[in-house]
Amino acid sequence: MTTPDASPSVTLDLGEDYPEVREGVRRICADFPGSYWRELDAREAYPSEFVTAMTEAGYLAALIPEEYGGAGLPLRAAGVVLEEIHASGGNAGATHAQMYTMGTVLRHGSEAQKARYLPKIAAGELRLQAFGVTEPTSGTDTTKLKTRAVRDGDEYVINGQKIWTSRALYSDLMLLLARTTPLADGMRPVDGLSVFLVDMRAALERGMTIRPIKAMINHNTTEVFFDDLRIPAEALIGDEGRGLRYIMDGMNAERILVSHESLGDATWFVRTATKYANERVVFDRPIGQNQGIQFPIAKAYAQAQAADLMVRKAAALFQAGQPCGEFANLSKLLSAEAAWEAAEACMQTHGGFAYAREYDVERKWREARVQRTAPISTNLILSYVAQHVLGLPRSY
Fold first, then answer.
1. Partners of 149 in the beta sheet?
2. Catalytic residue among 135, 254, 261, 367
3. Given this model, what pLDDT does residue 180 score?
4. Which residue ranges of the chain lie beneath pLDDT 70?
5. Which of 40, 73, 194, 388 could bond to 77 as cystine, CB 3.0-4.6 Å?
6. Domains by residue range for the chain, with CATH
7. Which of 52, 55, 49 is nearest to 32 (CA)?
């Protein structure tokens, strides 16, 4: 199927693409059933065993080129990995950052940086799972972040704070966005921000402090404090002052990848709700016979199928090097909403049992909700579409 508004060379495979990848991920996930994730959730623990299994199988190196020891697969294949994790009842939050931060290093890192870090990341010797961007006061207005990096000879001195930096306690490396030039009158807000690849092993207790945040979902999120942290100047990725551009360059990939997770969630919810609706008998008939149960599940399925087409389109355009900002954002919006509708249908189908942790519904319901807020909220996507696609006045 050729997309009408793109190059004829951009095609969509509407079958189960990457079947070997899917089957391989499913086999790994079978060893990590709902009981594994429930136990982690209760302890707010990190899924080290699962991450190790995915790393050893090579799936977390999907986007790393073969010359650095990775698989060199397209973005769609990496998305399929995340989708199958969620469809199995698991959660890829402990692993996905290594995929969506990879683009910044691959496209803008020096040859020395790539040669030093990528083979070790591919081999599982190092984890690149932490992404330090969001701050308590600036939120999504990244141009107003306050973390500073000041050049001092062969080093940068960093001061500031990041929040919602998930996996910081379990990562060896962090992509950090900081302001290297103070924001001045007449200066474009996007300028003066730089991105660094920070070795967290050397930074801990030498100016960097990590504090866990207790949250609704078990994403092992933290806030990170920098107090005169010194890092080598060679940690700078690309040119000083162009960091936000480098980060934004990877946002389309991030949104497409995270959209796959929502699709996996929708699949899990529809499958789980359907199974329960067929088995649960009330008033001498399966509850799935009632249209009040049937219709929400069927509607959720339809929404998920529509979202899947948009995600496939966005991934195909990205891989072909075509403009895909509109479709990456629409993928994120539609898949997150489809997953939430499916979560609600599954909760309602299970009734009171949905609140029993042994069914995994309430855990997955909590996890699905975050996709409507992070890594970008549905409202901001709607603002983007209104302004940049429809030509309406800028709202923020």
1. 158
2. 254
3. 96
4. 1-9, 186
5. 73
6. 19-123 (1.10.540.10), 128-241 (2.40.110.10), 248-389 (1.20.140.10)
7. 49
Cα of first residue to Cα of last residue in the chain, in angstroms, is 37
pLDDT one-digit tens code per residue, 284-334: 999 999 999 999 999 999 999 999 999 999 999 999 999 999 999 999 999
- 118 contact partners, CB below 8 Å, separation of at least 6: 64, 65, 68, 69, 70, 105, 106
Q: Is 254 a catalytic residue?
A: yes
Tens digits of residue pLDDT in 35-85: 999 999 999 999 999 999 999 999 999 999 999 999 999 999 999 999 999
CA angle 97-310-55, nearest 5°? Answer: 25
- Cβ 378 vs Cβ 372: under 8 Å: yes
Task: Determine the Cα–Cα distance for residues 261 and 257; give it in Å rounded to an integer.
Answer: 7
CA gap 86, 343 in Å, rounded: 13
CB proximity list for 21: less than 8 A, separation 6 or greater: 59, 73, 77, 80, 81, 84
DSSP 159-201: EEEEES-TTGGG-SEEEEEEESS---TT--TTTTEEEEEEEHH
